[in-house]
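Researcher: Structure prediction, please.
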Amino acid sequence: MQLRSLILFAFALLAAAPAFSDIEAAAEAFRAGRYDAAFEQAAGEPGADSHAFRARTLLAKAMCGEGEPSRTLIDKALAEANAALKAQPGHGEGRLQKAIALSLIIRPMGLSEARKTGYGEESKALAEAVLAEDPANFYAHGFLAVWHVEVERRGGLIGAAMMGASLKAARRHYEEAIRLSPEDIGLRWQWARALAALDAKKHLAEIHQALEAAVNTDPASDLDRVMQVRAARLLDVVSHKKPGEVERMALAML
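Model: Predicted structure follows.
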């Protein structure tokens, strides 16, 4: 579903900074990976911006851990995103943080269970609504790039067609995201991870290129560094292991 990653994310896609009085302290805490402190800095401020920022900190904390992200943190982030949208319907970052949270909720589910929730369609609609108002939002482009790949991986070509997903659309969103923010580590990492989980052999060159770019970019935040370490780990596997092992590892990562 950084201030640089998606989704991320799974893991990405953390949108513009909130406009409250403690912004510098909260943003600095976020960049340093002190997510509890960042959350507390924003906790006393009313309004959609602060709720969306708190959702962002909770999702970043959830995604930086090892293994599956905490459902408790995801649910709290979803509540904060919903609070942002209640305070300001159509709030851009609130929509993106909700989309990320929903995508993380269905991540461990089987295909049938995930479809019943409707969260896949809802997360796509939220990100597309952001782009309708802000076509240059590279976090939303990055989220949708990975969304299209993940839908094809889970549902195959038929399932992807049913949900309006395609690799062509995925690449269009990814290329636009990178054009808008070429130094973003999270965008590169999430794209490579998604393609590696889909078909490591078929997309080998593209995966390798994205991982190399992620590894060779200077990180701007602690979240960047986490994503960069993961990119380096996957790059090593891509370079030395068979495609099946690459796919298994990519599936287990965020």
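Model: The chain has 13 helices and two strands.
Researcher: Thanks, that helps.
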